[in-house]
Each structure stands twice: as C-alpha cells, then as structure tokens.
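This entry is listed below:
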Amino acid sequence: MREISFRAWDKKGKYMGRTFGLNDAAYEGFPRPFVDDNGECDTHADYVVMQFTGLKDKNGKEIYEGDIVKHFYYGIGNVEFYGGSFSVVNLKGGEKYQSYKKIRLNAVVESTGGEIIGNIYENPELLN
C-alpha cells in the first residue's frame, strides 16, 4: 500500500512545515502543521498543502508536489499532479527539453534517477 503523507508551505512565515500523514492527530479538523506555537488553529488560506508522490529521488529523498527535480536527459522541472498522474512540467535545459513539455515523474526517477534540487516556494529561481 502506498504511503499517503503531506507537507505544507507556510505563506506567512515563508517556511516548509514538517510532513504529516493521514493518521496524525488533528486539532479542530486541521492537521498539526496548521497549529501555531500557542496551539491556535490558523486558516488554510495561509498554507499550500503538497502531497507525497510515493516516489523517492536517486538519493532516497521523498518527492512531493512542488519539488524541483533535475535529470541529466530531461532537464529541470517542477512536480505537479497533471493529467491523472504526477509529472515533471516546465522542463528546461535538458537534451530533450524541446521535445517534452511534461513527462511522467516515475520515468524521470526510475530511468537513472532524477534528483530533488529544491522546491517552487523556496527556490523559484531554479526554474528561470
């Protein structure tokens, strides 16, 4: 069975929250990352929640939506849920980037390994 977990980007604090699973304790219906240091619930509007793709990069790091991955052949792109599966989109810089606008994430990871080099919130400059 595939592990289902998430992480959250805090828009106000500008940091990536820890990962949490479906079985984690909740506070008034909000997962733990939505609770501030005083135990107060914050609004979902202040967070972007990203799902674990079920795949790991060549270094064993879990890949989440919003991650930026690099592959020697396909180039650099960000992970999105697109067309019914997780894909790497906005590809730039690889040998084949002109032929591909998106490619399935598992093709990038399993073919000699893509590598996470950042995420779209903390490192947007990597996609320029």
The longest strand covers residues 47-56. Confidence is low (pLDDT under 50) at residues 26-31. The longest helix spans residues 105-110.
